[in-house]
Amino acid sequence: MKARPIISHQRPIIISLAANKCFINNSCSIPLDLRRYFASSEKRGGLITKYTLNKKYSTKVSNSSHQDTTSSREENPNLPISQASGPPLADIIIDDKLQEILRRTLWHFRAPIRYAFAYGSGVFPQSNQKLSSPDHRPKYFNASATVNNALASAPKMIDFIFGVSHTQHWHSLNLAQHRDHYSALGSLGSGAVSMVQEKLGAGVYFNPYVKVNGITIKYGVVNLDTLCTDLTNWTTLYLAGRLQKPVKILRDDPRVRSANQTNLISALRAALLLLPSEFTEYDLYTTISSISYIGDPRMNFPTENPRKVANIVGCNLPNFRKLYLPLIENLPNVCFKDFRNTGLDWISDPHINLRLIQDMDPVKRGNIVRRLPEAFRKKLYFQCQSKYKIPQIEFDTILEASNVGDEMQIKRYEGGSFEQKIASEPPENLRNELKNAIRRTVRWPSISQSFKGLLTAGVAKTWKYIGEKIRKNRLGRLDAETSAK
Fold first, then answer.
1. pTM score, two decimals?
2. Which of 201, 255, 271, 380 has the fewest CB atoms below 10 angstroms from its CB?
């Protein structure tokens, strides 16, 4: 007598991965034997599968009932962004040899790194040089003589962010292996290090000027919970702002990927509220890139390149398209005005600067206000309560209505009369209100994180870092004067 199978082929089974309160379908690692079982079961018609086999933009949905999930993100706010048409998060392409060097850098750490990305001018160009392709060919090609020669001619520090599960445990392991990476604070042990990391600033602990495999790096350590909270709620915009710009993800995590999708669509929505009815791609990506710098006190001192935002966008326009084009295509209130290129080749052309138009209808823009990140949105609400002189009882009702409730409620995503009133403000007034909310979000975490650098990096490294920033500021001003002439 044959034993009955544990899984009945008469019952459809949908395989998904839940992360950050929504279902995502990407980067789900499935054992080979299990995939073969799924494939054979599909042929028998008894199994509905919904998974990704680590192929670029190849999410598989074998049942037609699941293929209608490419509807508009605005029309269906509960739709997981990973189910929108287009790639869920385009991979940013850099030089293969540089990518291998960055990956090998992670192997230098025995402490477990769950999520990691590299960013900054050491990975992506931030100069006024024109690019012929989206690939950045930096100085670091090989971890041998080539790297040393490049470092001698134009040394750059490559910036990393490491996402970890247990902060104190991670620092304990890293202190045992790399005590020289830490300042005198490391002598107090992992407990003191993790306390400084989590209690001060934006929850990131930086170790700068670390030599690994012949290159100089700066790495910041952050708890995954802190990272995801900032990405979804914009509590500080410290790391969310970095991930709104092109970065090279070296180690991915499903929960962070899902949270960053929320971060990207939020950045796009905020930029639309800051922009007029008609604008260019360059205007859009410049506005997005500048969000995390509004209110950053470092921009008021001679420690940052005054052309920093313009240089980031001008040299990385194709990479910005990879991040935001799939999102633009799924928003019903914005579209390209002069979309004359139907092929994909224009995406890689940094010299093309298309124009876009957006619907300024207060109802639709009120929906955008309602769908901003919760912590950031409440700052905007409190500002407007004072401006409109709304009684506290009435305002409490507005806040209660905006609180996240049942997952199945769609109404909570629709802007009410309060949000529509905010969206109906004259454009300049609305921009000022949004910028004030951004300043209130960014200012204190940025200030406290900067002072924390004295503890985490030490006085000598901090002074060296400030000196390099001042040099970049001077070069940026010289570049601006040259361009003006």
1. 0.75
2. 255
